[in-house]
Amino acid sequence: MNYLLWAMLAMLTYGLSTFLLKVVFRTIHPAFGLTFANAFVVFAGVGWMLVSSAGAFKNVGWNGVTGLLLAASVILAASIVSFYKALSLGPTSVVAPIFALSFIVAAVLGLVILGEPVKATRIAGLVLGVAAILLLMR
Fold first, then answer.
1. What is the DSSP string of 69-134?
2. What is the value of pTM for the model shown?
């Protein structure tokens, strides 16, 4: 499966999980939901590492890349905690689109810092994506 199909699968499954979490948070505290749901993420990661064999551990050690992984992990934890808290307090139709603006941050950083190709179609897509999300938030 190519990266576009994986990305679409991620979009669909994350959207569905967001909806289900909102339903769950009507009854269960989001901190428990975070712990329970992310335990499954850990198990999935361990399973993926096991089927990837030794390749999963390539370049792992005390180095700059591992430091970036640690930073990304801390930031991801803050992101998910914030998302779950917002989802437990606000309407899904507002919280999810605001959270979805995170793709703009990643895309701009990819273009500016990683030197990914800047194309008119990508810029237009980002602008239209922001416009769509802003309309959904109204």
1. HHHHHHHHHHHHHHHHHHHHHS-HHHHHHHHHTHHHHHHHHHHHTS-PPP-HHHHHHHHHHHHHHH
2. 0.84
